[in-house]
Structure formats: C-alpha cells, structure tokens
Amino acid sequence: MQLLEERIQRDGQVRPGNVLKVDSFLNHQLDVALLDEVGRAFYDAYKDDGITKILTIEASGIAIACMTARHFGVPVVFAKKAKSKNIDGEVYTSTVHSYTYGRDYEITLSKKFLGPEDKVLIVDDFLAVGKAMHGLLDVCKQAGAAVGGIGIAIEKGFQPGGAGLREQGYKLTSLAIVDEMDDSGHLRFRPQP
Amino acid sequence: MQLLEERIQRDGQVRPGNVLKVDSFLNHQLDVALLDEVGRAFYDAYKDDGITKILTIEASGIAIACMTARHFGVPVVFAKKAKSKNIDGEVYTSTVHSYTYGRDYEITLSKKFLGPEDKVLIVDDFLAVGKAMHGLLDVCKQAGAAVGGIGIAIEKGFQPGGAGLREQGYKLTSLAIVDEMDDSGHLRFRPQP
Predict the structure, then answer these.
(1) Average pLDDT, chain A
(2) CB contact under 8 A, A29 and B86
(3) Could A70 and B32 be called an inter-chain contact, meaning their C-beta atoms sit closer than 8 Å?
(4) ipTM of this model?
C-alpha cells in the first residue's frame, strides 16, 4: 500500500533492536484518515470471504480493527491482555510472549463473542515474530471459528512471523512489508503487486 | 442519546459492585456503527470549539476516540497504561487508581504529541469516580493544552465523577447518564435535552 509505505518512510524511525517507531500515526498518535484507508484495503482483500467479525488484540490493534469493521459492517472483538473484574463467564485464554514488554502475558476473550458460526478477519498493526498472532489463532481454534484471513499494517519481513503464517496456508495481507532496516534509517520494502 | 440508552437497556447487564457490563457492544465486542453515532454526537456537541486532537486512554477509549476523530478530521492520541520499550523521549505521566483492576497505575503520553498549541476533546467509554479522567486532565495541564471538552458514552450519575467535572466548569457531554441501577437489572437514565 503506497500511502502507508510513504508514511513509514517519512515519519517512521528505526531504533536499535529492530524497533520501527511509527507512534506518530499508527500506535500512539493515530492518523484516523490513514487507518480508514488501511481498513478499506483489508475490505478490498477480504470482502468476498464471508467475514462475520474483526478480531484483534488490545491496545494498538483496536484502532485498525474499528476502521476495518466500518467497511465490513461487522463487529470488532478484541482480546484483552489483563484479567479484568469486568470479564465474567467463560473465557478463552492463550499465553503470549511480548518482545516489546519482555514478558509473557495471558490474552483473554469471552466465549460468548466468538464461536463456530464465525469467520474471522484478524487484524493488527505489526507482525514480526508472530507471537500475538499465534495467541489470536489459538483463541479462534478454541472457539471453533474459521479464520478467513489476516490483515497486517506493517510486517517485518526479516522476522519469521509472516513466512510462517503463509507456510501454514493463511491468507495474509501485509500492506507494507519491511525487508530491511538499519539504524541509519534506511528502509527497504518488499515489492508487492 | 436515545440509541445508546436503548442499547444499554437491551444489552447492558448490572453486576454486584455497581458494575454495568456493556461488553457486548462498547468495550470487548464493539458495535462500530453505534460507536460511529457516538462519535457523530460528540462532533455535533464540539464541532465549533476548535478541537485539534481527540485524547483518550487505552484500551476501550481507543474505539470511541477513532470513531469521533473521523468526524472531526483530527488525530487521536491515547495515553498508555504500561511503560513500553517503544515509548522513548520525554513523556508526561500521571498516576491513576483503577477500581476495575483494584490498583494504581501510571499513564504515559509522549510529549511530542500534546502541547500548548492543542485544544483537546477527551473521550472515554465510562465516567464513574473519574480517576482516569483526572489523569488525562493532569496530562493536558502538564502539556499546557486547552481542554475544549469531555465526551463520555456512559456516565454513572450516582458516582461523583461527572458532578465534580461540571463543578470545575468543564464542558462535559455524557450521552447516557445512569442515575440508578440495581442488581435486579433496573436502570434509570437522567432525562437530558
């Protein structure tokens, strides 16, 4: 997606440890007009796939999920990272390792919001190693929900998450795939049709 | 907002401890069409107030903030509840007590995303005691940003947050104000023009 690649080139910042900071438009400050175009691109990719729900994980996935769900006309459901007093009833849980936070955490999703009748589009802002995504896929498996596809804003193509999901046969759409980045700020995007 | 009050009556569930569960449409599963109407109502209330940014706090505020920012054509910025490796540079911080999670936590916002040039609309899904809101107001004060208004989906009118903010002179718009609720599921909304 040219609009997103140009924005990453312009406003993204490379930090030591393979960190690509896009906090000025994607995950701290949010450019909602850009996110709406991201949502439209996911809609174009999956509009014929019978998607019934957009699934993501708090927090930064929520914005993309909402701007995607708007185009599909289906609800968003997001997995929570902390057990809240306000989640009661039966829940699906899965354990995820966060490289950002340097720890494992549980993700939780109420069983009443995902079931065998659902065909899910999973969306998130980033795909790198893919730990969070595997937690979400595990939740879908527990729910008996079909995974219609996966929509990612920025994939770190030099990390294994995306390749692994494609090998497993998932329909993965990454709008920008960064194949190389270095601390000088150089970025190379994977050419896409 | 009649649409929201009717939805709370229909799908909200009262739980012991003054918990009003609206997780089927507002803060776990998200009815994006409803949230878009919530955003439109905030736009109608504040469209002439020179709002430059929509401010909220992760996680459940993000959805409402995005669907509000869409109408204003301004960015969202959300305060984070956990210190991430990926927040660098100078940050505003404030301490908030969460009744939901039963603990204090720090909220963090990068200084580069809020400053004296900003006029902020703060939005959130719930207003009860108002602890999170005071953290966001504290961040605005640290930034020297003007607070143009506060937009809340559901105010618990029997708790002191809303009354306190009105006394302090803030332009507060709560789309549904629950003045009474009991464990039998009875809800009474405050009549509003």
Answers:
(1) 94
(2) no
(3) yes
(4) 0.94
Chain A contact for B111 (CB, 8 A cutoff)? no
User: In angstroms, what separates the C-alpha of B37 from chain A's closest C-alpha?
Assistant: 12
Q: Name residue A62's beta-bridge partners.
A: none
Tell which residue, A89, A99, A67, A93, has the closest CA to residue A79.
A93
In the numeric block, which tokens belong to residue A109?
């999703």
Q: Which residues, listed in sequence order, are joined to residue A97 by a DSSP beta bridge?
A: A104
Minimal Cα distance from B113: which residue of A?
Answer: A29
Q: Does A19 touch chain B (CB under 8 A)?
A: yes
Determine if the pTM surpasses 0.80: yes
What residues of B are in contact with residue A59 (Cβ under 8 Å)? Answer: 58-59, 62, 78, 80
Question: pLDDT tens digit string along B54-107?
Answer: 999 999 999 999 999 999 999 999 999 876 555 667 999 999 988 777 889 999
Q: Would you place residue A101 in the very low, low, confident or very high pLDDT band (cuts 50, 70, 90)?
A: confident
Query: For chain A, what is the largest distance between any 2 Cα atoms, rounded to a whole number of angstroms?
Result: 50
Of the candidates A44, A45, A33, the one whose C-alpha atom is nearest the C-alpha of residue A3 is: A33
Give residue B17's region: left, alpha or beta (phi > 0; psi -120 to 50): left
Residue numbers of A between 125 and 184 with CB closer than 8 Å to B: none
Structure tokens belonging to residue A30:
């949010």
Q: Tell the residue number behind the tokens 């692994």, with chain if given.
A: A164
Length of chain B: 193
- Our CA-based measurement puts residue B16 at a distance from the nearest CA of chain A, in whole angstroms, of 11
